[in-house]
Amino acid sequence: MCSQRVFSVAVIGGGPAGLMAAEVLSQHGIRVDVYDAMPSVGRKFLLAGKGGMNITHSEAQDSFLSRYGSQRSVLAAMLNAFGATELRQWIYGLGFDTFVGSSGRVFPTDMKAAPLLRAWLHRLRDAGVKIHVRHRWTGWNADGELTFVTPETERAIRADAVVLALGGGSWPRLGSNGAWVSILEQQGIRIAPLQAANCGFDSLWSEHFSSRFAGQPLKSAVVSFTDAEGHVHRQQGDFVVTQTGVEGSLIYALSRYLRDTINAQGCVTFDLDLLPHKTPQQILHALTKPRGSASLSSHLRKQLNIDGVKAGLLRECLPVDVFNQTERLATAIKAVPIRLTTPRPIAEAISSAGGVTFEAVNQQLMIKNLANVFCAGEMLDWEAPTGGYLLTACFASGRQAALGVIQRLTE
Ligand SMILES: Cc1cc2nc3c(=O)[nH]c(=O)nc-3n(C[C@H](O)[C@H](O)[C@H](O)COP(=O)(O)OP(=O)(O)OC[C@H]3O[C@@H](n4cnc5c(N)ncnc54)[C@H](O)[C@@H]3O)c2cc1C
Fold it and tell me: Tell me, what's the pLDDT at 314?
C-alpha cells in the first residue's frame, strides 16, 4: 500500500493575506506553517478594526473593481472568484454577521476585528496550521532553505513551496516594514518602490496658521484639481488641517492622484470650495451688502458664515490684495488654492502602493524566476482607497496564491 505524499508549505506573514493562504492550503490537506516576525499575528488587521472594521464594500462589482485603478485587470479574476459576497459568507462561516453601513461599506455586526481574528486563529489551529511567531524571515541560504532569525537562534527551513505575505510599508511597528524589498531585489525581482497611499500631505503652513488651526476639521468641503495626466478630480467630503498639512477621508480618497501629481510635477495645488452650496453670484451678493464699520472678518462671518479655520485658510492661501476686491474675493471663496508639497511619510500612511510587480509573477501569483515562491496581499503592486477594498484584495490574493501552490504541487 502506498500513502500519498503530504506537502509542506511555509506561509511567511500572518496578516489577512497570509492567514487566508494558510486556510485554503490546510483545507487541501497540506501541512502549513505560518511564520511571523511579531510576537502575535494579524496586528495590522486588529488596528484596522479599531475605529470599526470596514472589511469590504457592497457596491456593484464593476464599481468595486474600478477602485483598483490601473491594476483592475490583474486583480479582477481573483476578486471575481472571492469578492465582497464571498468574503461576507466567509465571515458568516466564522460565526459573525455583517451589515452594510449608510455609505455602502460592510462591517461585522459588532464592528470589531479581535473576535473575528480569535475565531479564525482557533479554526486554523484546529485545521492543523502551526503558527510560529517571533520568526523574522531573512531570505534563503545557499542550500535554498528559508532562513529565519528568532530571539534565541537562527533557523533554516525547507518547504515544498512558500507564500510570502509580508505586507506593505505602512505602520512598520506592526510588523510589515518592507525589509523584504531588498531580499527580493537581490533575487532579481522587479519591485515598484513602496510609496505612501491613503495618506496625508504636507503644505507649507505658516506658523501663525498651523498654531491656530491644526486639528480643525472641514466638513463637506469640495476639493478639485487637475492631475498630472490632465484628469479633473472633484470630490466632496471631510478633511482635517494638521500641524503640517492636511489629512482625512477626503484627502485619502484623492491621495493616489495627489501623490502621483507631486511625483510628476514637484507639487500639486487643489482648489477648496468653502461654500459649495452657494453660487459665486450669491456670494458676491452677500459680500456687497453694506457692512458699515464692521471689519471684513465679521462681514464674512455674518453674511457667509465664514470664520475659524475657513477664514484662516482664506488669509493663509490668498494674496492680500484679493481682500480689497470684492468680486475676486467672491470667486476665490469657491476656489481657495491649497498647495501640497509632499505626501506624509509611508510609516504614517494607512497603506502603501508599490511592491512586487505583476510582471514578476504569473497568474497564480508565483514569482516567475523563483520556482514555488508565491506572493499575496499588500506586498503586491496594487493600491486602493479605504472602504474595505484593501482587505478584500488581501484575502482574495491570499486565496489565489494558495490555489496556485496547490495547482503547482499537484501538477
Ligand atoms: C490604521 C489602519 C487602518 C486600516 N483600516 C482598514 C480598513 O478599515 N479596511 C481595509 O480594507 N483595510 C484597512 N487597512 C489596511 C489593511 O489593514 C492592510 O491592507 C492589510 O492588513 C494588509 O494585509 P497583508 O496580509 O498584506 O499584510 P499585513 O497585515 O501587513 O501582514 C503582514 C505580516 O507579515 C509580517 N512580516 C513582515 N515582514 C516579515 C518578515 N521579514 N518575517 C516574518 N514576518 C514578516 C508582519 O509582521 C505582518 O504580520 C488599515 C490599515 C491601517 C494601518
Answer: 97
Q: Is the CB of 148 under 6 A from ligand 1?
A: no
Co-location of 154 and 23 in the same domain: yes
Of 343, 369, 386, which residue is a domain's last?
A: 343
* Domain assignment present for 220: yes
Ligand 1 pocket, residue 133 CB under 6 Å: no
Average pLDDT, the chain: 96
Q: Whose CA is nearest to atom 19 of ligand 1?
A: 390
Task: Please compute the mean of the pLDDT values over residues 245-256 and round it to a whole number.
Answer: 96
Which of 173, 184, 390, when mutated, tests ligand 1's pocket best, judged by the most ligand atoms within 8 Å of its CB?
A: 390
Q: Is 348 in the pocket of ligand 1 (CB under 6 A)?
A: no
Average confidence (pLDDT) over 86-107: 97
Lookup: cell for 1 = 500500500
- For residue 3, is it within any domain? no
Residue located via cell numbers 510560529: 132
Phi, psi of 4 (to 5 degrees): -75, 140
Determine what percent of the chain is predicted with pLDDT higher than 70. Answer: 99
pLDDT, position 256: 96
42/404 Cα distance (integer angstroms): 23
Tell me what the mean pLDDT of segment 258-271 comes to.
98
d(CA 326, CA 355): 50
Residues 6+ apart with CB under 8 A from 409: 7, 9, 30, 160, 161, 372
* Same domain, yes or no: 269 and 361: no
Residues 47 and 183 occupy one common structural domain:
yes
Per-residue model confidence as pLDDT tens digits over 334-358: 999 999 999 999 999 999 999 999 9
b (16+ CB within 10 A) / e for 123-148: ebeeeebebbeebbbbebeeeeebbb
21 lines ligand 1 (CB under 6 A): no
- Ligand 1 close to Cβ of residue 165 (< 6 A): yes
What's residue 45's pLDDT?
Answer: 97
Asked whether residue 173 carries a pLDDT value surpassing 60, the answer given is yes
What is the tally of structural domains in the chain?
Answer: 2
The rounded Å distance from CA 8 to ligand 1 centre is: 24
